[in-house]
Specification:
Radius of gyration: 20 Å
Strand content: 15-25%
Distance between the termini: 57 Å
Strand order of the largest sheet: 4-5-7-6
Order of helices and strands: EHEEEEHEEHEEHEE
Structural class: alpha+beta
Largest sheet: 4 strands, antiparallel
Number of domains: 2
Length: about 260
């Protein structure tokens, strides 16, 4: 059997989202923590791959993060999702989560990453996976501490029952009232919401395919002004827009409760 992963993976700051995920996935495989795809045979001249995961370990996958969600000083950041082994008996779920998440965290830290477990608390049986944030920081830097109760008001997957409304309705109304029709939005998963937030969304401009970087900048500046006036907090992309690399321009908008 041979590994299906390349032998060398290099992080490219010009393409940080994709290359960071590729690098960390390769490193997770090297540590025995990843999906570890290997070629098991060939069929009709084509390689056939399968995951080779030790029983009782679960597996991890790194996912690229938009730079607006990175810690302030990070020069590389990904989400690492750990998925438990579903064959572990239910009475052992708590220990399985605790020991394997500790092993994954230790493995990432051994590679020089700072690791955080963000968002509302997840529990074995109720949740399918546990997300972690892994960031590479300058020498001597550390992650800013997160408030211990910053997500206590949230469920992992919020639901809304009348007369409550999904707060994305307010966002859509804000954009519509300002005639910002060339923007779309999607709700972020709760582990990407800032502490004490009641909602967080990625707001994207859907301008033409021939738009320039200047067009992107102007479009995001326009929607930022509207959102700021409407009371939203904002998280911004951290480098100049590049239409050749970035899929589309965006800003993260969120609403936040004031801690009691």
């Amino acid at each position: 059997m041979t590994s299906a992963s390349p032998t060398t993976v290099v992080y490219d700051p010009a393409d940080p989202v994709r290359s960071a995920a590729a690098l960390v996935n390769h490193q997770l495989d090297q540590l025995g923590l990843g999906q570890h795809w290997v070629q098991t045979r060939t069929q009709n001249g084509r390689p056939v791959v399968d995951r080779q995961i030790p029983p009782g370990h679960g597996w991890c996958r790194a996912i690229g993060l938009h730079q607006a969600l990175w810690p302030a000083t990070a020069d590389l950041c990904v989400e690492v999702d750990w998925h438990p082994d579903h064959d572990v008996p239910a009475p052992e779920h708590d220990e399985h989560w605790q020991t394997r998440l500790a092993a994954v965290t230790a493995g990432l830290e051994s590679l020089g990453y700072a690791v955080r477990m963000p968002g509302p608390r997840r529990t074995p049986g109720a949740d399918r996976y546990q997300p972690l944030i892994a960031a590479r920081l300058p020498v001597g830097a550390s992650l800013a501490p997160s408030p211990a109760n910053g997500w206590d008001h949230l469920k992992v997957h919020p639901t809304y029952t009348w007369p409550e409304r999904d707060p994305i309705w307010r966002l859509h109304r804000t954009l519509g009232d300002s005639h910002l029709d060339s923007y779309v939005s999607r709700t972020l998963e709760t582990h990407h919401w800032p502490p004490y937030s009641t909602g967080a969304w990625m707001v994207m401009w859907t301008g033409g395919q021939t738009a320039t970087a200047d067009d992107w900048h102007t479009a995001i500046a326009r929607v930022r002004r509207v959102l700021r006036i409407a009371g939203y907090g904002l998280l911004d992309h951290r480098r100049p827009w590049d239409p050749a690399v970035d899929q589309r321009p965006y800003v993260i908008a969120y609403l936040r409760e004031v801690p009691q």
